[in-house]
Design brief:
373 residues, 17 strands, 15 helices, TIM Barrel, three-stranded antiparallel β-sheet, alpha/beta, nine-stranded mixed β-sheet
């Protein structure tokens, strides 16, 4: 059997956040039933492919809005289609405002063993600017429900670079996050995306200066390290044994299937992406038509470039001997000018046969990684 990861997109939100440009629509009670029925049809297309799932990730949108019967239908289709490895990581994304005792208990029944909670901030003013539906008080209650009734394997998302955010409010969010004792923390710098309410209103807000954002990032590294969170990727930190297996599979260039509108897949050296329209998605599957918007077979060279680009996000770096042995590709020779340039600046180094970013490079990583595309 071939190991592969599965991503399921649930595109429903009670209300879209002010910064979000992921594909999602407003929740309509009449739509999820038809959507899940169509989703199971797409999933069933992979039957008899001899795939073994090493991880399942239910993302969105807000998957925690789905009722237990709909999630049960979804998981039944996954179980009927794939072999699920005994140690598979099964994650669901959740908004703190939608997590209850009963919902948490139902997740455990379904086999969900990891919950990623979109906290973003513990400051109510910042949450309001972001357009989040939950308050800071909701977060602790949500975490307690999940810990008691589902799993202790909880990941918390946090964001810096929010309008009006200070170094002090950022540190308070980090401190409160650590006090909840999650197993994993992901941190992201707010990115202004065209077409979002926050982008349209950007001139009315005061954003933290780049120097302050840099200070926030590096203070966070020290703080989380002192709290025994191991940094294994530019934005991700975990307790021992709790790295995100699903995300690591992406960063290592492994194959994955994406189901749902706007979902992406990569397998058999082909990238595929689905149409970004729920109604068309439902209609196409009902009429036995494809929901794939485009597909592209990539070259071996392009695949290797992706492995380097994504591998450098990992703190361990890119395995040089592995790429030379398995793919006949000498990274040091092929990228000698780029590596020499950034090595002289103190941004790149070779350590134990791995090409890796130095800690100094983490905050400016996008500029460096772009030269390996």
């Amino acid at each position: 059997m071939k190991d592969i990861s599965l991503y399921i997109h649930i595109p429903f939100c009670t209300r879209k956040c002010n910064y979000c440009n992921f594909y999602s629509i407003s929740y309509d009670a009449k739509l999820p039933g038809n959507y899940i029925h169509s989703l199971t049809k797409e999933i069933s297309q992979y039957k008899n492919k001899n795939y073994a799932l090493s991880s399942i990730y239910i993302g969105g949108g807000t998957p925690s809005l789905l009722s237990f019967p709909l999630l049960f239908t979804l998981f039944s289709a996954i179980n009927d289609t794939f072999f699920i490895s005994s140690n598979a990581e099964v994650t669901i994304e959740a908004n703190p405002a939608s997590i209850t005792k009963d919902i948490s208990h139902n997740w455990k029944i379904l086999g969900i063993n990891r919950v990623s909670i979109g906290v973003q901030s513990f400051d109510d003013t910042e949450l309001n600017i972001l357009g989040r539906l939950h308050s800071s008080k909701d977060i602790q209650t949500a975490v307690e429900h999940v810990k008691i009734h589902c799993t202790e394997n909880i990941s918390i998302d946090l964001m810096y670079g929010i309008p009006g955010q200070t170094h002090e409010t950022w540190m308070k969010s980090l401190q409160r996050a650590v006090l909840l004792e999650p197993k994993h923390i992901s941190t992201y710098c707010l990115s202004l995306e065209e077409g979002t309410p926050l982008f349209d209103a950007k001139d009315t807000y005061s954003f933290p200066a780049e120097e302050l954002q840099k200070e926030m990032y590096y203070t966070m590294l020290s703080f989380l390290e002192n709290a025994d969170f191991h940094q294994y990727e530019i934005s991700n930190f975990s307790k021992e044994g709790y790295k995100s297996g699903h995300n690591i599979s992406y960063w290592k260039g492994k194959e994955y299937i994406g189901c749902g509108p706007a979902a992406h897949s990569f397998y058999d050296m082909t990238r595929r992406d689905n149409i970004s329209d729920v109604q068309r998605y439902i209609s196409n599957l009902h009429n036995q038509q494809s929901v794939c918007k485009s597909s592209k077979i990539i070259s071996r060279r392009e695949y290797i470039s992706d492995m380097i680009f994504l591998g450098l996000r990992m703190t361990k770096g890119v395995p040089l001997s592995y790429l030379k042995k398995e793919h006949g590709f000498d990274v040091i020779t092929e990228y000698s000018d780029t590596i020499n340039k950034f090595s002289k600046l103190g941004y790149l180094t070779v350590d134990n046969d791995y090409l890796k970013l130095t800690k100094k490079a983490f905050f400016v990583s996008d500029e460096i990684l772009s030269e390996f595309v």
